[in-house]
Write a structure and sequence with these properties.
Layout (H helix, E strand, L loop, with lengths): L21 H5 L1 H12 L4 H9 L7 H26 L3
Helix pairs in contact: 2-4, 3-4
């Protein structure tokens, strides 16, 4: 199934903060799709192309960097950042 391309700009590196940011709120669907893709053992190239809209053949370094950054942030949100959402 063909997935929609992102409608908001994707950062090569997610802006990092110890709290949920506006970037996080705008890209929460991207984070969910990234986590889902990781659970299904999707390749970095697949995630870059299908989720982030970055061509991994034309921009392999950018693709790897962006996917890694979004995986790290998505994991942070799930393990630590969500505490902010629930007052913890």
């Amino acid at each position: 199934m063909l997935q929609p391309k992102p409608t908001t700009p994707i950062a090569d590196e997610v802006p990092w903060s110890d709290s949920i940011t506006s970037y996080d709120r705008q890209h929460r669907t991207i984070y969910l799709r990234i986590l889902d893709a990781c659970a299904y053992n999707a390749s970095v190239e697949e995630m870059a192309d299908r989720i982030l809209g970055i061509d991994p053949i034309l921009e392999p370094i950018r693709a790897r960097k962006a996917v890694r950054s979004h995986i790290d942030r998505a994991n942070w949100i799930v393990t630590t950042g969500s505490k902010h959402l629930f007052g913890g």
